[in-house]
Task: structure prediction
Amino acid sequence: MAFTTDSFVVSPLFFPGGNIGDLAVNGTVNDLLMCGAMPCYLSLAMILEEGLMMDAYWGMLLSIEYAADRAGVEVVTGDTKVVERGKGDHIFINTSGIGAAPWCFDRP
Result:
């Protein structure tokens, strides 16, 4: 198995071609693919700043779902925390990914 983790902090949250949500999924999937593993599972942890607009949050969640579906991975666990207004940059996302790595099975 291959295992990777990454954190995502971007501004603005929405940009031409995507947002922090699909960036998180696609970035972690890409890390697994680049080491020769087939992505299977993701964890998703979010730190939300108090006052984050719900439409922005739902937009990111839908993008996460869409990106995971397209990549053929399942988000199997996660966590959400909320910090006080001014203590975060709207949202921080951490993803970890597990993939099947055929090169691992070649070892004695």
User: Anything to note?
Assistant: Residues 2-106 form a domain with the 60s Ribosomal Protein L30; Chain: A; fold (CATH 3.30.1330.10). Strands lie at 2-8, 14-15, 18-19, 38-49, 74-83, 91-100.
